[in-house]
Amino acid sequence: MQIWTVDFFRADELVVPMLGKNITLWGLISKGFFKPMIVEKSEGLNMVLPPDTFTVRDVEKYFGPERIVDVIDVQNQCDTMMSMKEYADYFTSPNRQMPMNLISLEFSNTR
């Protein structure tokens, strides 16, 4: 049996820490965007973010438990459909049997 080892980069070697007030369109155009950014403080981005207490259960509540969402079975790379309740149950379960991703879920303009 062959054992593979993987060396990972440190996060501070791969990302650029930024303050929201320092992120501008002109800055991105003039300096480029070559590494991911971690926005340490969102002030200045003109964004409204949910509170830190916002969870997947809140998303379920706002969308409704019967709302069908596209989910990816990571292991098999297959799309599947779940209700928002099924996904929230999966996401909050301590014993997840297979990794599932909910890649994109647009919920602006909802309550």
What does this structure look like?
- Helix 3 runs antiparallel to helix 4.
- The model has no long low-confidence stretch (mean pLDDT 87).
- 25% of the residues lie in helices and 21% in strands.
- By secondary structure, it is an alpha+beta fold.
- A three-stranded antiparallel sheet has the order 4-3-5, with helices on one face. The protein has a two-stranded parallel sheet with strand order 1-2.
- The chain starts with 10 loop residues before the first helix and ends in a 10-residue tail after the last strand.
- Among the domains are: 11-41, no CATH class; 56-101, no CATH class.
Task: Looking at this protein, list some descriptive labels.
two-stranded parallel sheet; 3-stranded antiparallel β-sheet; alpha+beta; 4 helices
Offer a quick outline of the entry.
The protein has 111 residues and is of the alpha+beta class.
Strand-helix topology:
Layout: H1 11-14, E1 16-19, H2 25-31, E2 37-41, H3 56-63, E3 68-73, E4 78-83, H4 84-92, E5 100-101
Parallel strand pairs: 1-2
Antiparallel strand pairs: 3-4, 3-5
Helix pairs in contact: 3-4
Percent of residues in beta strands: 15-25%
Helix/sheet category? alpha+beta
Our count of helices gives: 4
Which term fits the overall shape? flat
Give the uncertain stretches in residue-range form.
none
What level of helicity do the residues show? 25-40%
Mean pLDDT rating? 87
Q: How are helices and strands ordered from N to C?
A: HEHEHEEHE
Cα separation of the termini: 53 Å
Spatial order of the strands in the main sheet? 4-3-5
C-alpha-based Rg, rounded: 19 Å
Characterize the main sheet. 3 strands, antiparallel
